[in-house]
Design brief:
Keywords: ATP-binding, Chaperone, Cytoplasm, Nucleotide-binding. By secondary structure, the chain is an alpha/beta fold. It folds into 3 domains: about 240 residues, Orthogonal Bundle (GROEL, domain 1); about 90 residues, GROEL, domain 2 (2-Layer Sandwich); about 160 residues, GroEL, CATH 3.50.7. Helices cover about 45% and strands about 15% of the residues. The strands form 5 sheets. Strands 6, 7, 8, 9, 10, 11 and 12 form a 7-stranded mixed beta sheet that branches. Strands 3-14-17 form a 3-stranded antiparallel beta sheet. Strand 7, helix 9 and strand 8 form a beta-alpha-beta unit. Helix 8 crosses helix 12. It is elongated. The N and C termini lie far apart (about 65 Å). The N terminus is likely disordered.
Length: about 525
Amino acid sequence: MAVAPAIVAQPSASSKTESYIDNKRKEDIRQANILAARAVADAVRTSLGPKGMDKMISTSNGEVIITNDGATILNKMEVLQPAAKMLVELSKSQDATAGDGTTTVVVIAGAFLKECFTLLSHGIHPTVISDSLHKAATKAVDVLTAMAVPVELSDRESLVKSASTSLNSKVVSQYSTLLAPLAVDAVLSVVDPEKPDLVDLRDIKIVKKLGGTVDDTELVKGMVFDKKASHAAGGPTRMENAKIAVIQFQISPPKTDIEQSIIVSDYTQMDRILKEERNYILGMIKKIKATGCNVLLIQKSILRDAVTDLSLHYLAKAKILVVKDVERDEIEFITKTLDCLPIANIEHFRAEKLGQAALVEEVSLGDGKIVKITGIKDMGRTTTVLVRGSNQLVLDEAERSLHDALCVVRCLVNKRFLIAGGGAPEIELSRQLGAWSKVLHGMEGYCVRSFAEALEVIPYTLAENAGLNPIAIVTELRNRHAQGEINSGINVRKGQITNILEENVVQPLLVSTSAITLATECVRMILKIDDIVTVR
């Protein structure tokens, strides 16, 4: 019986150029990086959207955090794999750029990586995939910009809607009607007319105070210190027509520059020392009183006690209200708010360096006390938000949520365009990029089509987290967009597809565009890595 000889086909020269054959190690490294990064993305995927789940994070020191803010979850995760760490950095970048959409950006990056994995397994070169992704992202930003609706800062209602959308996915979503207008008012009050496109969130101070509920959160036109006034020797706790000094020197007896001990041999010398101390402190307080100052804010000192019992006694006698232990990093905010200058030496203590306010008083709140300064004369462009909460977990989450809402309003000040939420922009991007991929030639078109499909992960996840049928919802959504309804999105409250702009589910354009560009940047970087070198 004759056996047919085995025919070995030699690969032709042309097939080498078309398909890319990588060596095994590089393939394994890429595969490991993509899988590690996708694992991080899958971990936060369930917390996307208004019906997303919350994560309970238990830290090594026993602290417990409950949140569904993507940046916070990833920040607290101990990620060891270098490529997975890049996703943590990605979420931090989104937090810095836009402040919101930190979960979205990681989920999109995870979906892109999944498509890259498939394309690599088909033998497409990483550089081709990377370039196609860059082109797709540039086109996506153009599509989003075309969809956006311009908004004016005078249109307060639109700003409140976008802040409210940001808060809807948070633990404190039931308080969005209170926190959203508060965030808008806070940001608008610190916008400088000379630089209308810039908002520095450091001009908005958030003070947390345990007790009450989130409903008791308020915007204070003035300043709040989470400290009580000094009560030593019966000092005043309320001062009208206040003249406020911020001092950075100590009202206490001086110490020697070098470590040395003074030996006192008899009582007369001891009395002399005490008398000198008294005279030294009295001399300082007389200079302070001479300028008309009646409220002292004393910076915390690391060298020696900023104030002693003796100096507090004399300050109380001089009817000067004292708030001590003011943190060093708060000084800039305080001086900007009070329109005063910090005083570093008693010799420089002059009336023109003081700030003026109608009222400084100590107020009881919950189980503690705060010092409130209101009616500030020539107040700087700053504001304070006093956040309340029944327990520390709620308080911390309320602060994080408020920060996100403030960032959303800041985005609208920087780039005054709104875009629909609820998965509408992503489906529209997917549809338009899919159509555009047919115009492109060769591998590029194939890669762009894959990335277009990857963007469907956002509406799919929104539907999945809301307990709806994701396949039916996404299919219906595609159908609506194909008919030209570009603002159709998933209404998770009603469990159906509606015009999401009419439902007031809106977000700043900057959040969506930065999510796409940052995710693309991160994925391209992971894609280009073909080896990991460990240096001991």
